[in-house]
Amino acid sequence: MSEKNAAIIIIGNEILSGKTTDVNTTFLTRELRGLGVRVQRVTVITDDIDDIAQTISAYLKAYDLVFSCGGIGPTHDDVTMAGIALGVNRPLVQDRVLLDYLKKNYGPVLNAAQLKMTEVPEGTELISVASLRVPVLRFKQLYIFPGIPELLVRKFNAIKERFREAPFYLVKLYIFLPENAIAAQMHEMLLQYPLLQLGSYPKLHKSDHKVVLTLESKEKPYLDEALQALLVLLPDDAVVRIER
Amino acid sequence: MSEKNAAIIIIGNEILSGKTTDVNTTFLTRELRGLGVRVQRVTVITDDIDDIAQTISAYLKAYDLVFSCGGIGPTHDDVTMAGIALGVNRPLVQDRVLLDYLKKNYGPVLNAAQLKMTEVPEGTELISVASLRVPVLRFKQLYIFPGIPELLVRKFNAIKERFREAPFYLVKLYIFLPENAIAAQMHEMLLQYPLLQLGSYPKLHKSDHKVVLTLESKEKPYLDEALQALLVLLPDDAVVRIER
User: Fold this and answer.
1) Separation between Cα atoms, residue B135 and residue B233, nearest integer Å
2) Domains in chain A: ranges and CATH
3) Which residue did the predictor score with more confidence, B155 or A204?
4) Nearest-by-CA chain B residue for A45
5) Does A18 contact B41 at a Cβ distance shorter than 8 Å?
6) Which of B76, B150, B186 sits opposite A198 (nearest CB)?
7) For A157-178, how does the pLDDT look when each residue is reduced to its tens digit (9 = 90+)?
8) A238, A182 contact by CB (below 8 A)
9) Cβ B183–A112 below 8 Å, yes or no?
């Protein structure tokens, strides 16, 4: 089954210095998973043109979908557009449609800071959606979002259906044994079901379980068969409960 | 002023699939900032040996300090040690001291899963601290932490003083004007004070301010001088309050 791989780039010194907690990663990873998209990497980088350029350039080569968050405002530290332009070796050009949008929002005469926000790498598409005040910007498979969580959520939700793939199916098993007591069975499991995504997450302070196992697949019959096989492999009464 | 650059590697499919929110990044970035260390990059990668190997290898070349979180338990998806070993081209070897630690915790006879946790890349140092049940593992400038936040916090706190550098100084200005009204002054500011770290963060729903400006430097006199210059540049009464 063909499947799109995605990467997320969070641009912002404020995250790296610990002054702001990144909430965009949690939102985007959950949403993309729900849409059936596999996120392969998340990277937080500085508000630095070279950093942005190198990361964008590398990720456009490596991933089917790339999402950037942050650095698209009017101030000196908003260098995402310049970084993308450098990374893909295209000039920054003023977009007339974006200019009209900004004039509608700010009035007919824009200052230098507002004009800066009309400049995009040549070849950028504007995705206009009725529910949005300003369009979402796309350059090839890179979708360029703002860093402000509320604005990002609004923009992502407006265009999310274009990313939908076949869904993932998930089963969670709550296990009262420690990880090392079931590690051999997990290993055996993956020999039998190599395509199963199998996760094992120890929990320190739960009274009724010590580990959560997650079984995932895009193929529901394969997942169901693997689950039955695992239940046979595990010691009697090891499973406290099953969630799907 | 020489200064150490750091990178953080979060290893875990559960973060990338949105099932778990990463809290280790917030903890580590805040702590490292407080210690005067500049975090340059955070990357979340899959529980995949090649992914880990390539990232570790690249980051050991690029950063003075590297912190990895996750993937050091006993199960099939804990492949951090194998990934590091591959990335730095060293064999995995059983560490006798680690073996003794684990026997003390689990009893004299270890199962295969427990024995797996005694294998480390050749050349790994064990940092034993009285307050810890098991030592922190270090390979060159890479510090290898568990993914479970409570264990990571305990281990990091036990050894954090070894990372301390000259501190950062920070001033926050709360501004009641929008970003585009002060962008020109910010630009001018950086021409006058190129070494200043200047951040501008719009706030959507605050009644008394629209932007928070952050001024940072490791040189306190430089920061104080820049602050005075900025206050002169900004329009009268633009600053609602100043926090240091």
Assistant:
1) 53
2) 5-163 (3.40.980.10), 169-243 (3.30.70.2860)
3) B155
4) B41
5) no
6) B76
7) 999 999 999 999 999 999 999 9
8) yes
9) yes
